[in-house]
Amino acid sequence: MKAVILAAGEGMRLRPLTVSEPKVMIPVANRPILEYVVDSLVKNNVREIVMVVGYRKERIMSHFEDGKKFGAKIEYVVQEKQLGNGHALHCARERLSGEFLVLPGDNVIDQRAVGDLLRAGTVPSALVVESENPSKYGVVTLEKGTIKSVYEKPQETISNIILTGMYALSDKIFQYIDENIREGEYGLSNAVQSSLGQQSLTPVFSDGLWIDAVYPWDLLELNAAALENLAVRTAGKIEPNVTLSGPVSIGQETVIRAGTTIYGPVLIGDGCDIGPNVTIFPSTSIGSSVAIEPYTMVKNSILMSNCSIGAHSYLSHCVLGYGAKSQSHLMAPGAEAYVNISDEFFKVPHIGSIMGEDTTFGTGVAIEPGTIIGAGCKVSSGSKITRNLPNRSLVS
Questions:
Q1: Considering only Cβ atoms within 10 Å of each terminal Cβ, which end of the chain, N or C, has fewer?
Q2: Distance (Å) of CA 313 to CA 35, 153, 269, 295
Q3: 170 and 68 share a domain?
Q4: Do 246 and 284 touch, CB atoms closer than 8 A?
Q5: By C-alpha distance, which of 315, 309, 27, 386 is closest to 373?
Q6: Where in the sequence is the domain holding 255, given as residue range(s)?
Q7: Do residues 62 and 108 both lie within one domain?
């Protein structure tokens, strides 16, 4: 059976982290989100994969190439305009016949979730889960073991069972996609809803992992989940008087300097320089070529590759894009906060700061919890940031 991975979108609500990266290539536990999807398929012996790409497609294609190094055979289809996931699947129509799987490329899923969908053995079927926030998704109602109806992002509470975007479908779906496109509807759930009068859609529940990254703070949840089964690896150099507690993975040519304490699960990439006297708390991922200077504390955060954090800094529940750099005494604590995304405010139980790629901070910068700082910003020493900053902002 072939699988189609829909990976064409930008991820507008994840800006500024998607300025130069498509959403599916954002690293979680130092691996692109899309890699988890491919890995889950291969572990279920689904090796023929069609990827629908669009925004920053070169980043995806250069990473996965023909799929051989991932144990798969990958071919690519380009969605020139990101109109919707139904339209994205339509772009792959010529590569598909009979039955196939459809998966979103921007969700972290595990082998079991894909396996449960395959083992159900019913086409068409959809993987569904219960959600505490169903209004963000396609919501379904069930009747006599089948999906009776689909409601796309309803404002009122209809059901707490949502579509994950994972389906086992056949090429019959394309007639409904075509009809919907003619009417200006480009979502796959719209086509699925249209098909319900003609064919039954079986709901498949799973205890496997499925987490969607809709907003920047979702990345921290994905990261924590991905680190739960972290394999211990200590390839770098660990100086005397370093304390490692719990699962900690340290990459090649990384140096952990004296007096540093790391509470796992923590993942540290290659070529990093950590310490001395740094403290890193659980659910933290640190990319490659990252420098963290003395007396700094990092907690439940994602630091992408090529970041550097000056001495005496504190980061909690933060996401730092590639190449973000700070001088000493950067204060970015985490707390309950209201976060402004596209002029909409979201109450987040615990969030620090989201910092875009190549942004630099002087000495003694303080950032309010829930603040989003764009890519390529320059923040001068002694600044206090209390509101979101657009890309390439200058704060003096």
A1: C
A2: 32, 41, 20, 7
A3: yes
A4: no
A5: 386
A6: 233-395
A7: yes
CA distances from 184 to 90, 102, 104, 273 (A): 14, 22, 21, 53
Question: Apex CA 83: angle with CA 81 and CA 86, to 5°?
Answer: 120
DSSP codes, 208-254: S-EEE--STTHHHHHHHHHTTTPPPEE-SEE-TT-EEES-EEE-TT-
Q: What is the mean pLDDT of residues 213-222?
A: 90
Number of domains within the chain: 2
Alpha carbon distances (Å) from 67 to 25, 42, 74, 192: 15, 10, 5, 30
Does residue 258 share a domain with residue 184?
A: no
Residue 222 inside a domain? The answer is: no
The answer as to whether 221 is a domain residue is no
Q: Is 281 helix (H, G, I), strand (E, B) or coil?
A: coil
95/209 same-domain check: yes
Sort 11 into a burial class: Cβ within 10 Å, 0-12 / 13-18 / 19+: buried
Question: Confidence band (pLDDT; 50, 70, 90) for 48?
Answer: very high
Q: What is the pLDDT of residues 238-264, one digit of tens each?
A: 999 999 999 999 999 999 999 999 999
Instruction: Supply the CATH number for residue 303's domain.
Output: 2.160.10.10
Examine the pLDDT at 214 and tell me if it is beyond 90: no
Cα–Cα distance measured from residue 201 to residue 125, given in angstroms and rounded to the nearest whole number: 5
Is residue 136 scored above 80 in pLDDT? no
- In whole angstroms, how large is the CA radius of gyration of the chain? 22
Cis status of the peptide bond prior to 16, with omega within 30 of 0: yes
**Burial status of residue 148 (CB atoms within 10 A of its CB: 0-12, 13-18, 19 or more):** middle
Contacts 24+ apart (CB under 8 A), 44-48: 44/111, 44/114, 44/115, 44/118, 46/1, 46/2, 46/3, 46/101, 46/114, 46/118, 47/71, 47/72, 47/73, 48/1, 48/2, 48/3, 48/72, 48/73
What is the tens place of the pLDDT at every residue in 359-386? 999 999 999 999 999 999 999 999 999 9
